[in-house]
Amino acid sequence: MSTVLARPVAHRIRAYVRLAKLDIFDYYLSLLVVWSLLAPAVRWQPRTLAVLLVLLAGQVCVAAAMVTFDDVTGYRDGSDAANYGPDAPARRLARKPLLAGTLTEPEAIRFGWLTAAAGTALWALAVAVAPHHPLWTVLVAALCLASSVQYSWGVKLSYRGGQEVFLAGLGIGWVLAPYGLLAGTPGGFVAVQAVLFGLGPLLFGVWSNTNDIAGDAAVGRITVAARVSARGNAAFIAAVTVGEMLLIVLAPAFGAPWWFPLVLLPVVLARIGQLVTGLGRGDILAARRLGIRAHRLTVALLVLANLVAAWV
């Protein structure tokens, strides 16, 4: 009897894990970048590690709330049904528990508000125990929290033309705010890395939007891909990609070591490959996958560059 009862509980837990998209960890990598930017004497201090751990837990909760409300809204307006149609593979459809029928809408909404509240409490705790408390960090953290919850809920930023700005802005904020709490006001080099990190989610998000044009357009979700021509969307993606490359090349003008662009050269090559795959060959989903890998490569190389810069 206990086995029979435990099985549905296990299924529900897996459904909540899928609802929270815990396998998508790319935004959480911001804290690795922040940790590597800290002075060597600060990185391993118990207080530093404790603040980073609390920030990470808060990020996970805030992101879970964001994607949960996004799924609820997509379920309500039919965009998820259009983008994850009946011919979608079962594994892909399972990532949408509302569509798959493994969770109800009220259960998802309760989960969204619970994780939003937990994220708020954890970030407040991080601010309280952090060694620095500049006002701007609190404002940036609050903006990240509010915009995450309102991404597809309430104001629905992603439906009103704010999606692309949000995708990059959240990543930027999740580097700058933790750094400010742990080290104070950032310099130009830190700002450059924050922008490079923020561009990562944007440069795989735009390919998701390109794949979801029909579903987004049908429900009035304003994305660049859904509102401009195919040529205009291609030009936008290319412009953002080239902008990232230029930032890498020009980073020494903002305080980066002269060798920084050489370390990030693999990212430039990966972005070129992404453009060739997506725009040249028309393989949108492959370009998205390459974008995820390029973002993770960027994080690894930023961490490497920061660790080396501390000793040269």
Automatic annotation (TrEMBL):
Residues that span the membrane, as ranges: 24-42, 48-69, 165-182, 188-207, 228-250, 256-273, 294-311
Membrane topology recorded in Swiss-Prot or TrEMBL: Multi-pass membrane protein
Subcellular location, record wording: Membrane
A GO CC annotation given for this chain: membrane
Biological process (GO), any one: vitamin K biosynthetic process
GO MF: prenyltransferase activity
Key words, A-Z: Membrane, Transferase, Transmembrane, Transmembrane helix
Entry protein name: 1,4-dihydroxy-2-naphthoate octaprenyltransferase
Lineage, opening ranks: Bacteria, Bacillati, Actinomycetota, Actinomycetes, Micromonosporales
